[in-house]
Amino acid sequence: MYKLNGYNIVLDAGSGAIHSVDKLAYDIIGMYADTPRGELVRLVLEKYASRPDITEQEILDTLSDIDELKAAGKLFSDDETGAEAAKALGRRESAVRALCLHVSHACNMSCDYCFAGGGRYRGESALMAYETGRQAIDFLIDSSGGARVLDIDFFGGEPLLNWDVVKRLVAYCRRAESSRGKLFRFTLTTNGVLLDDDVTDFCNREMHNVVLSLDGRPRVHDSRRKLGEKGSYDVILPKFRRFVEARGGRSYYIRGTFTHENTDFTRDVTHMADLGFTELAMEPVVAAPGAPGALTWDDLPALCGQYELLASEMLRREREGRGFTFYHYTLDLPGGPCIYKRVSGCGSGFEYLAVTPEGELYPCHQFVGDTAYRMGDVWAGVTNASLRAAFRSCGVYSRPECRECWARLYCSGGCAANSYRATGSIEGVHEFGCRLFKKRLECAVMMAVARSADAYGDA
Description:
459 residues; alpha/beta; 11-stranded mixed β-sheet; 3-stranded antiparallel β-sheet; 16 helices; 42% helix
């Protein structure tokens, strides 16, 4: 239960039902589970003593409405479905459905907050050979079981430094689609320095999604994302604009990173929107305490305030006909991911693996270079079965702190890599990230309520 932007919002965790209610109903719901009915009526009458319209009958009618919602499983519901799905995780088919192909452990930029250490991931600069990438694709196909749609992310470092191999690997996948009965979807993440007509044309033919790295305002971007000693904003911005225009409505994201130095990141998001970009994401920096730009607990109130400010600004712009998408506020309330995804998360270390230029397998890109989390290679496959089993069982119900959390079926227990970095265990809880996620979810739900109110005249 929370109040935001003038709305009183009640979210039922077990069913996913969302209720936007008046103040009276909000107060009664808050007391409903723990207060005897006669005492509840007395307390509410006392609280609303100055309101002659709030009578005992009005309170009883509201209680009756709440009773009906509870009986319908839309309020105070049990979470039997999620708990049963969690028990079934270990019985799922052992299928790999996605790879993050690190075609380049090298980068042409020097971003001081880079979690990958300049794109080298604790090692030497390296480019993936075509033969290694081809073997990775064969491993994916052979390990995919009955899954038909397979995803490949071309990642780095900077993948455009190995562009010819990227193109050859896409061609190999396309040939394999008909012979092996699979369908491939590709994503490319790039800093944009090497974007040209060839890359643009190829991506528009072949890439399901493209992620472009831009941190917002010129001052903010150039302070972190550098070409040598100089900022890169003026170099990449024209390239990104040409690319998005040529993309013609196909999926893309402008992805930024905010740090301790720009906790006012709403200004960076709206700056990118004002440039004409409509698909935006802004992520908190992945950095150890004391590292350049690392966020602190003192930053948390400001960051939560920024998420609220951003949500309100987005609604205002939508009403003016100039809206944009923010990745973390994209919430499919009627549908959304299946229950297994809701309890298990992204599938890292089980359904999703990262591949180094040498062909080594890791749970995801954030574990690459940590030899304790090496899972095998693309020739021998997953050889660390116990580690894979640990990731398969890792989810919202494997963490005691998460089992009763109202956001459990939205965050799925959070990011295993962030948990490991914060606590030393993939089963731990990254509390800072948890707090940010909850605030983002509150904002996303509020925006859905506001859109409903705009469409129907009330919430």
